[in-house]
Amino acid sequence: MSNTDQRKPSGQSTGSSTMGREGSDSTKTFRCADTGNNNCKWETSGGSDGEIMQKVEQHARESHNMPKLDDQTRSKVQNAIRERPAA
Ligand SMILES: [Zn+2]
After folding, report:
1. Closest of 57, 37, 55 to residue 46, by C-alpha
2. 68 Cβ contact partners less than 8 Å away, ≥ 6 residues apart
3. Cα–Cα nearest to 51, from 26, 17, 18
4. Cα(47)–Cα(27) distance, integer angstroms
5. What pLDDT, in 10s, does the model give residues 42-65?
6. 51 Cα–ligand 1 center, Å
7. Which of 77, 18, 20, 87 is nearest to 52 (CA)?
8. Is the N or C terminus of the chain more exposed, i.e. has fewer CB atoms within 10 Å?
9. Is the pTM here over 0.85, yes or no?
């Protein structure tokens, strides 16, 4: 009597993990002159509208004696923000 007990290891996992990361590397730029301040050469860039808006607020406060941007100016700024594709 022979008892052959053969067990095959099953369950081979051939998993391929592909890490595809899509990063948006676009840069947004803004020029103060585009909002009507033709004699102002200030410009800035950032990764998002919010980032630029913060810098604009600071610039407006320091250079244009505008402690706070009103809604009209804010929308002007947002319309003037341009997207520049990363080189
Ligand atoms: Zn300015």
Report:
1. 55
2. 57, 61
3. 26
4. 5
5. 999 999 999 999 999 999 999 999
6. 16
7. 77
8. N
9. no
